[in-house]
Description:
This protein has helices at residues 60-64, 129-132, 174-181, 257-271, 289-304, 320-337, 372-380, 386-399, 401-407, 428-442; strands at 9-15, 48-52, 67-69, 89-93, 97-101, 106-110, 116-120, 151-158, 164-167, 200-205, 208-214, 241-247, 279-284, 308-311, 358-363, 366-371, 415-418, 424-427.
Amino acid sequence: xxxxxxxxxxxxxxxxxxxxxxxxxxxxxxxxxxxxxxxxxxxxxxxxxxxxxxxxxxxxxxxxxxxxxxxxxxxxxxxxxxxxxxxxxxxxxxxxxxxxxxxxxxxxxxxxxxxxxxxxxxxxxxxxxxxxxxxxxxxxxxxxxxxxxxxxxxxxxxxxxxxxxxxxxxxxxxxxxxxxxxxxxxxxxxxxxxxxxxxxxxxxxxxxxxxxxxxxxxxxxxxxxxxxxxxxxxxxxxxxxxxxxxxxxxxxxxxxxxxxxxxxxxxxxxxxxxxxxxxxxxxxxxxxxxxxxxxxxxxxxxxxxxxxxxxxxxxxxxxxxxxxxxxxxxxxxxxxxxxxxxxxxxxxxxxxxxxxxxxxxxxxxxxxxxxxxxxxxxxxxxxxxxxxxxxxxxxxxxxxxxxxxxxxxxxxxxxxxxxxxxxxxxxxxxxxxxxxxxxxxxxxxxxxx
Length: 449
Ligand SMILES: Nc1nc2c(ncn2[C@@H]2O[C@H](COP(=O)(O)OP(=O)(O)OP(=O)(O)O)[C@@H](O)[C@H]2O)c(=O)[nH]1
Ligand SMILES: [Mg+2]
C-alpha cells in the first residue's frame, strides 16, 4: 500500500449553507377568502464543522478538494410549512491540525480525538409572514430573507504527526531510509534538495507501530534561509525523537560525519525547541566500502556525544532492523511518559453572537453603521418590498441607530452605509421615511415632525 505524500498545509474555501427565505402567504379556505398570514419560516443553512479524527493522518483530501459547501436551507411555504434545514458538512482532520485565517490570524488548535469546531456557520432562515404578524401588523405583506452562510478561506496546517523525524544534509539518504523502512515511496535522486515537502512513512518494529517523516535537506546557514531554509523543521517540532541521517560516502572534502552532525545540530539549535528530543545517529551508505571504514572510525567519537550509532545501508537493508527497534523503543518510552491525553486546546476567535452593540462613524460625507444586528437585518431585507424596508427601518430605529446617526451629525439626504465590504448604501431620508411611517402608525415617535 502506498502511503500518500505528506501534505502539511492547505487553503480551504468554505461556504456554509444559506438560510431559506421566509414565505409570504395568506390562508385561504372556501367561503373564507381572508384568512390570516400562514407563510412558514425558511430552514437554517448547514454549518461546516471540523472534527478531529485520529484515523486521518494527512490533509491530502483537502489538497485534492479545497472547495467545500454546506447545504442551503429550504424556503418556507404556505400553510405554515417551515423549510427544511440544510445539511451540515463534517470535515475530519488529523489530530494536531492548526487552523488559521488566510491573514494568519489564529483560529484554533485542534487537539484531541473528537474535538469539534464550527468553522463556518450556516445562515439563519428568514421568518415567514406568519411569524412576523403582531397585533398591530396582522397581515404582513413581507417575509424575511434567509441570511447567507458564512464564507471564509481558512488555512489548515499540520505540524508533523510523525513520531520520528529524520534530519540531515541533502542526499544523505533520508528519503531512501523511509522507503526502505516503510511502504512509502518518496522521490529519491542523486541530486540535492530532491525532497521539497516532507514524506511520511509508517514503520512497524515488533509490536510498535510509529510514523517517520523526513525533512528536506538542511545545509549550514539554513536558519538564515540558505538552501531550502529551516522552516521545514517545524514539521519535526512534535516528533518524539530525531534521527541524524549521515552520508558516510560523501566524496566532498571538508565533510565528515562528525562535522555534518555538528552543522545540523547548530541549525536545530537555532530553530529552537528541539533540545529535549532524544536522538539516534544513522551512518548511511555502508554498502560502499569507504563508508563502512569511515563508520568504524567515527563511531566512538559520535557515541561520545551521547548518541547511539547505527551503521546502515538504505540500499541493501543492512542495519535497518536494529535501527528500527531502537526508534521504536524511543517512541514507546515517549508515549509512556506523555500525559494520557492532551487537554483540548481551542483558541476560538472572539466573535460576538447576538451583540446589541453597533457603531456609527462619519467617513467624509457619509456615515457608516457597523454591528452584528444591523448587518444581519440588512441581509434579511427584501429591498423590493416597501413593507420589508419599513420593517428594517423600524428595527434600526428601535436599536437606536437613528438616534446615533443624528448625534453623529447626519442630515436627511446623507448617505448611510450599513456593513463592511458588501455594504448596503442608503440615502438616509427615503429609507428612514418608510420606517417613520410605520412608527407613525404607532403614533408615538418623537422624531416625526
Ligand atoms: N550506495 C548507497 N546509496 C544510497 C543509499 N541511500 C541513499 N543512497 C543514494 O543517495 C542519493 C540521495 O538519496 P535520497 O534518499 O534522495 O537522499 P535525501 O537525504 O532524501 O536527499 P534530499 O531529499 O535531497 O535531502 C540517491 O542517489 C540514493 O540512491 C545507501 O544506503 N547506499
Ligand atoms: Mg529526500
